[in-house]
Design a protein that fits this description.
The chain is α+β, with helices and mostly antiparallel strands. It has helices at about 40-45, 50-55, 60-70, 95-120; strands at about 5-10, 20-25, 25-30, 40, 75, 85-90. The protein has four helices and six strands, in the order E-E-E-E-H-H-H-E-E-H. It is flat.
């Protein structure tokens, strides 16, 4: 079995210096495709399909059958079809370093949310 590569991240230490750290990792089933290696193209059902849409004029019997049998599937955008992703092996990481890593993930998530908000507002979308 292939060993998962270390996960690298950078944090700022108490002296304001950037420190690059490699954390041990392990493989976990991809949460995006649930281990299938593929998922429905988000352009088809990225917002979800309501019962009204499913039964409406845009979804005929052939389209519904195609959806249910994988005709609209694409390679998983998260695992690239490998069915697994590397995640930090929390049991093998120093608790203080794990805390720094989780803080890093929260910071990145906030940045991503701020970027998404900016894109919505610049495109004339509402903030709901």
């Amino acid at each position: 079995m292939r060993q998962a590569e270390a996960i690298t991240f950078v944090y700022e230490d108490d002296n304001g210096e950037e420190v690059e750290v490699q954390l041990p990792s392990r493989f976990e089933v991809c949460s995006r495709c649930r281990g299938a290696g593929k998922h429905v193209n988000p352009n088809v059902d990225g917002h979800g399909i309501t019962a009204e849409e499913w039964n409406g004029p845009d979804w005929d019997d052939d389209s519904r059958e195609g959806y249910l049998t994988g005709r609209y599937d694409v390679t998983c955008s998260e695992c690239k079809g490998l069915r697994v992703v590397a995640v930090v092996d929390e049991a093998a990481v120093d608790p203080e370093m794990l805390l720094r890593y989780n803080d890093h993930l929260e910071t990145v998530a906030r940045w991503d949310a701020d970027d998404a908000h900016t894109r919505r507002m610049e495109s004339g979308g509402g903030d709901w």
